[in-house]
Amino acid sequence: MARIKNNKKQTIIVTVLCLVCFGVGVLVPVIYQRASSSSSDSKLEYVKNVLENDWYYADQVEDLDSLLTEQALTGMTTLDIDPHTNYFSLDQAKQFSSSLQGTNTGIGIQFYQQDNGNIYVKYVFINSTADDAGLKSGDIITKIGDLDLASSTTDDIVTYIQDRDGKEITVDYVRDGQTASVKLTPSEYDSTVICNIYDGYGEIILSSFSSHSGDDVADAMARLKEAGITKMILDLRNNTGGYLSAAVEIASTFLPSDSVVFYEEDKDKNITEVKTDDSYGQIEMDQIVILQNDQTASASEALIGALKSHLKDKVTLVGQTTYGKGTEQTTVPFEDGTSIKYTIARWLTPDKESIHEKGFEPDVAVEDTSIGSVSYTEMKEDDVIIADKVHVNASALQRFLDYLGYTVDRTDEYFSKTSSDSLKQFQKDQGIAPTGNCDYTTWEKILDMITQKYNENSVNDDPIRNHGIELLG
């Protein structure tokens, strides 16, 4: 027995030695090449040469040279220290450029469809065709050209309007029970600024900072002044930024001339002050409530910093701590349409403070408990939320049922018996087989109804906005 054990040990030792030799046989040439090609340029060239000439799959990749170059550029600009430096492929560059433009083609409304197909105008973008024609939030559009709204989807409506760019169409609508008609010509409009005037206060909703946002905000502020408004809400929630130059222009409408909007600090620690553009005249407000959340970032934060620094006694921040992006990027396009975006500086508030990776804390913290803040994962067609079981979407399902007026006893990821019984009633009410389990069909129906009800009640179902209005008095 002892001999057998020894033989086994020898076998194991021989096997291990073979593996080690095999490993050395692979490693030696690589180590040798690394030693003989120590510069980064040589290593890059060597690896590229190997993949193009010796790689087994080289002849199976179309345009391998371009692919390797693109991936190398992506790799070089993927940096843990700076997620805001990026290389953009052709498609990515187009998408990024489009996101900064803030322009769309249409009549310039944000809307949702009612059950009968009619269009409820939720917001009108300032200086759009709809705005110029006098359409207002709350108008109900009953007809657009010869389009049958009752049998049309939202996508159908958008496509119909965009296909008539530059061509006049007739729009029928109802306001306060009165029917009216207007002729509109779809065209390009800036989709970043909405201005609402209410009894005693105004509201400007700014979704991003485009090249037109400065002028549009100036026009919106002029409307508030003309209406005698001295208190306002500036809604910057989910505004992830855009052009810092637009932030300067917008700040210029709020601040006295020659005010510092922010400071720029370059890589050599040189600091440059960036001041207001005095071609924009200041429009004073007695009270400004800024709405913010964790997606309020970059140029939005630069604007907050400027207003908060110069108008301390007039500005109140309401909501949640902002994202915390205090750096500035520039974009360099290449001839083939690709581009690189890289960080060139960080910006500091007029008090010379950096909010990078910190953000602005609210003066008044308000949790967003609206149904619009509920998150969930996409349901697959064969997925089912089963009673008395745990499911990642059970929390959302139970909150949705509660919002629709059905009884639930919990809102975590356990789908309870009580909630299941309520789902059965929902299914009966909607003509769906009352299983008490939420399959794909039931889930989609709930989402449709939630979207409809939330759109109808979003102005009221908004704790952050409602608190801001209360502060205006």
Plain-language structure description:
- The protein has a 6-stranded mixed β-sheet, with helices on both faces. Strands 1, 12, 13, 16 and 17 form a 5-stranded antiparallel β-sheet that branches. The protein has a 5-stranded antiparallel β-sheet with strand order 3-4-5-6-7.
- The radius of gyration is 30 Å and the shape is globular.
- The model is unreliable at 1-37 (pLDDT under 50).
- By secondary structure, the chain is α+β, with helices and mostly antiparallel strands.
- 30% of the residues are buried.
- The longest helix has 35 residues, at 2-36.
- It has helices at 2-36, 40-53, 64-76, 90-101, 129-133, 154-162, 213-226, 244-254, 299-310, 394-403, 417-429, 440-457, 463-472, and strands at residues 86-88, 103-106, 109-113, 119-124, 140-144, 169-175, 178-184, 187-190, 193-197, 202-206, 231-235, 260-266, 271-275, 287-292, 315-319, 327-333, 339-348, 364-365, 389-390, 414-415.
- Helix 8 runs parallel beside helix 9 and helix 10 (394-403) packs across helix 12 (440-457).
- Helices cover 37% and strands 22% of the residues.
- The protein contains 13 helices and 20 strands.
